[in-house]
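Worked example

This section walks through a single chain of length 297. The input is the sequence exactly as stored; nothing has been trimmed or padded.
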Amino acid sequence: MLFPPFDPERSEARRRRFRSIPVRVLAPNVITLLSLCAGLTAIRLAIEGRIEWALGAIVIAAILDGLDGRIARFLKGQSRFGAELDSLADFVNFGVVPGLILYFWGLNELRSFGWIAALVFAICMGLRLARFNVMADDPNRPAWAANFFTGVPAPAGAIIVLLPIYLNLLGLPRLTSLSLVYTLFISFLLVSTLPVFSGKRIGKRVPPEMVLPIFVVVVLFVALLVSYPWEVLTAGSLAYLASLPFGWIAYRKHVRADAEAQRGLAPSEAAHGQPTAPSVAPTLSDDEHGERPNRLN
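Given that input, the structure is written out below as tokens.
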């Protein structure tokens, strides 16, 4: 047909497809793409043997990853496209790249076993991110559950799995067999059900008297990271690993409190002929609706 009949629905769909996109939606996605560029550059640096620079690129990718989601929420620029792009970038930056860096650094001495360890880490990171995306849309989570991740989050996993390299750069011998076991251990933490502090409630409201001290701490941390990168990354990784049991303890306290509250409500509700309901409404808090997936985000 030379002149097809006018279809208003098709015309409206075409207008929506070519509608201009607000800058507030583009800005977070640009940061995500910059993070992905940093991760891909880290692969090239690792292939060339410049491991120190590759580690720096990973740190930059992790910092940018922590910014994109927060900027999206600040600008109200969340989008489904941005969430999917963020998840794909996380898999590359924090799953594929650290595994390859470890392999080019020393795991390749173990031949197939070293490559398998790198594969296991990347696969576990992909599974961890997929689980996070599913759980983020779960309407049955209690509000306090937003304070915890299930398993070690992606950026943290990428930073702490590189601990053997930090130690080697500080002068310790390169123990490739022990590094392989450690890589598999971190891979297990990624896909485990271990509750880990998320830090999402930190920094929602800052008292005026704490603004300047926070600025001083941030500047001091950046200065130390630039001046003593391997010492800071080693200390941070060890401190993070040491904090994991405290997240599990805090989570269990919340679970016990919910169970005790439900047992306390059950007799009175039974007397009035009402069904038992959980003490915490199974809904997410208002600031979590439409939130982009955020790992240390």
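What to look for: The beta strands are 148-150, 195-197.
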